[in-house]
Amino acid sequence: MICPECKTEMVLGAHPIVTAVGGRSVECRSVNHERCPSCGYYELSSQESELLEVQSAIVVMTDVDAPGANAVRFARKAMGLSQTALAGLLGLTQETISRYETGALAIQSEYRLALAGLLGREERRLRGWDSTCGRLLATGT
């Protein structure tokens, strides 16, 4: 592909992309995409963009003790869930999710890690990985 900005040949690879998640910057290098070596122009497919968002949310949920309100909202939206749907998956109420997202309540570590687990499941789905093997290993069968 030729860069539409400077007409240089684009290069395919896992080039760094920085995403803002809840006031934090996350650099991801695991999403293959074409980038112009001259001007830095790149485009992502919708699936690549979804994967980038999910991976960035996983990093914040697992590596940051207090990810902040915007990070919880970012993670929920990266999975395409409503507040009610996320609340159901976490065993919480929609009101609690709303409080996490507005910053009225800090997300507790067990729910932060559970959210990271849900994001990991979404990442596997986006990558097309079959999670059956993981379930079999987890149950010992």
Task: Give me the secondary-structure topology.
Blueprint: E1 11-13, E2 17-21, E3 24-28, E4 33-35, H1 46-63, H2 69-78, H3 83-90, H4 94-102, H5 109-127, H6 132-139
Antiparallel strand pairs: 1-4, 2-3
Gyration radius over CA: 17 Å
Q: How many distinct domains? A: 1
- CATH hierarchy class name: Mainly Alpha
Strand content is: 5-15%
CATH architecture: Orthogonal Bundle
Give a quick account of the main beta sheet: strands, pairing sense, barrel closure: 2 strands, antiparallel
- Could you give the order of strands across the largest sheet? 1-4
Q: How many β-strands, per DSSP?
A: 4
CATH topology term: 434 Repressor (Amino-terminal Domain)
SSE order: EEEEHHHHHH
Unreliable stretches (pLDDT < 50, length at least 5) are: 134-141
State the share of residues found in helices, binned by percent.
40-55%
The CATH superfamily appears as: lambda repressor-like DNA-binding domains
> Outline, from the CA principal axes?
elongated
The helix tally amounts to 6
Distance from N terminus to C terminus (CA atoms, Å) equals: 47 Å
Average residue-wise pLDDT:
88
Task: Label the structural class.
Answer: mainly alpha
